[in-house]
Amino acid sequence: MRPITTQTLFSLQFSGDPQFSPDGQSIVYVKTTINQEENKYQSQICKYDRKTGRDIPFTQGLAQDKLPKFSQDGSYLAFVSTRSGTPQLFVMLTDGGEPKQLTFFKKGVKSYSWMPNNQLVVAARKDDANEKSDVRVVNTLRYRGNGYGFYGDEPIHLWLVQVDGSGPQQITDGNFDETDPTVSPDGKKIAFVSWREENQVEVTPSLYTVDLDTGLIDLTYQGKGSVSHPVYSPNGKWIAFFGHEHGEDSGYNTELWVVSTGSGEARSLSRSLDRPVGNQVGTDARYETAEVSPIWDMDSQKIYFTATHEGDVYVYSVTLDEKIQKETPGDTQVVTSFSYHSGVIAYAKETPASPAELYLQQNKEIQQITYHNTPLFKSLTVSVPERTKFQARDGLEINGWLLKPPGFSSDQRYPLVLEIHGGPHSSYGNTFLHEFQVLANSGYIVLYTNPRGSHGYGEAFVRGSIGDWGGKDYEDLIDAVDAVARLPYVDRNNLFVTGGSYGGYMTNWMVAHTHIFKAAVTQRSICNLHSMIGTSDIGFWFNVKELDGADIWEDEEFILSRSPIRYANRVQTPVKIIHSEEDFRCPMEQAEQWFTALKRLGVETELVRFPNENHDLSRNGQPEHRVERLDHIVGWFNQYLGNKE
Ligand SMILES: CSCC[C@H](NC=O)C(=O)N[C@@H](C)C(=O)O
């Protein structure tokens, strides 16, 4: 058996986005591997035949092929591929042949949907006509996005393209983005999400419908918060979508909604679940290729969707009369994507001991159908986490996990690393986490918890950090460390801490408020909530929401009082700062401020800058950079391990 190391990353495989063929006999899915020589990810579409069990690659090459979707008659498979540079729409016959490129948008395709007559509707940004100069003239607050870069002047619109390659024909227009098209069963209408308000601080999308005969666009549902992933019911009477009514805010449960295409009446079907739809469990061992939309049963009475519950993600179903049922059994799983066909669910499932593999579930029987990681994992010392619960000082129950080194013995004492997730409205859960396994395999116990502010424990819990960053969320984490440090096998003189994004903010906050940690690594972090308002791609709305409306001109003192930079002169813990130079979410200037402050104050610190990387370095950065990042984390802790009591 071999330990899991930073280099293990190169051998991991990620499967997801299963799609049934219309006859239900085959399933296509996306498999992503890492090409170490090229230092790149490669995604190909594979096809699993349910009768023969044969699993074969369907597309070839070194590019990223993703978002496969069968045409309604099953004769074509469309997918988005980077094989010609930017992500463009391709189509191929399902019985084989060469893929044909259907779109040539300079900035690529965002989303698409099949029409009944073998046409497709595509959401793509119009080519920028004014690219005469490389100077950027900016007139809106939303002019850049982490991981995308600068949006340019042209918004995203809908276009019709034909399988023979003709088109694209533009079908919506205006100075706002329009995405997520869904086609009515008769092919006459397309519903889509649109941001028809320009240049506002807080924008809330709505659902619109375009009539393809007349070109007229109607408002179908006036959004009051978030609206995404609309899907027509097979009988055309409803559109299901994900949304909430709380403005632009990630600190609420997004729910499954339906709107009647006749009366316009809209309601949430999943409110009683009190859980957010979709997968809110983070990991560094997933290569996301698709977001799952709601899936209707053929009778138009039931909808399938995923939701996050206490660190697990299950498939659920809900009827139009709001009866909710958990569909995937077991309690240790993170379903990242799924497809449904006549009573059978095909799903990609991560567990604490493996990145995602595909499963089929029929009549409560489960069959694993891919084993891409199995040979590797049979030769590795994988540690399986134990679920734990803690009581915060105000009595609230906090969930967490302890990951012990392989070969753990309770007679020994182990150093401990506290890992803090970002968001703050995301969560840790029952998935495979490469960084944590590397630490456990290096001899550390890893403690990770879901403090208040995390998703998956109800809306009251997720709102528990609003207006209180560095308050009760901090206490929840410290109370968990206190409890674990009392265990006989934990070396309380060797406690370490790390986290990314909001987890980096909290790491900075911690070293400024306690001296219990031997060393810290702060990643993609925030130290100044005041300057972040103007420099992050989301700062102008996110920071104000997270601090419960606090804004620069009225509440400057409060904002600074919740910023670690104010307390930098209390830091004694050695801090390594890891940051990506193209991070538009928690901009590089945050790391620079923290580094400069700690250096000036004589604290042991080191700044590690990753060029050509953004906020997602740990998840989809260049593979070699990801390995280097992990080496920096483990190396920093090892450097301080054991010495200086
Ligand atoms: C600290 S400000 C922005 C934090 C960011 N939240 C939303 O984008 C965040 O914490 N993201 C998490 C999910 C991360 O990057 O791990």
Overview of the structural elements:
This protein has a domain of 258 residues: 3-Layer(aba) Sandwich (Rossmann fold). It has eleven helices and 40 strands. 16% of the residues lie in helices and 36% in strands. A hairpin with a 5-residue loop joins strand 20 and strand 21. Helix 6 runs antiparallel to helix 7. It binds the ligand CSCC[C@H](NC=O)C(=O)N[C@@H](C)C(=O)O.
Topology of helices and strands:
Elements: E1 2-3, E2 14-20, E3 26-35, E4 40-49, E5 55-57, E6 65-70, E7 76-81, E8 88-93, E9 100-101, E10 109-114, E11 119-125, E12 144-145, E13 149-150, E14 156-162, E15 169-170, E16 178-183, E17 189-194, E18 206-211, E19 217-221, E20 226-232, E21 238-244, E22 255-260, E23 266-268, E24 295-296, E25 302-309, E26 312-319, E27 324-326, E28 334-341, E29 344-351, E30 354-362, E31 365-368, H1 374-378, E32 380-381, E33 386-391, E34 397-403, E35 414-420, H2 434-441, E36 445-450, H3 459-462, H4 472-485, E37 490-500, H5 502-513, E38 519-523, H6 529-535, H7 539-546, H8 552-561, E39 575-580, H9 588-600, E40 605-610, H10 617-620, H11 623-640
Parallel strand pairs: 1-32, 35-36, 35-37, 37-38, 38-39, 39-40
Antiparallel strand pairs: 2-3, 3-4, 4-5, 6-7, 7-8, 8-9, 10-11, 11-14, 12-13, 14-15, 16-17, 17-18, 18-19, 20-21, 21-22, 22-23, 24-25, 25-26, 26-27, 28-29, 29-30, 30-31, 33-34, 34-36
This protein binds the ligand CSCC[C@H](NC=O)C(=O)N[C@@H](C)C(=O)O.
The site of the ligand CSCC[C@H](NC=O)C(=O)N[C@@H](C)C(=O)O has 12 residues, from helix 5.
InterPro entries: 6-blade_b-propeller_TolB-like, AB_hydrolase_fold, Pept_S9_AS, Peptidase_S9_cat, WD40
Domain Peptidase S9 prolyl oligopeptidase catalytic: 432-643
Keywords: Acetylation, Hydrolase, Protease, Serine protease
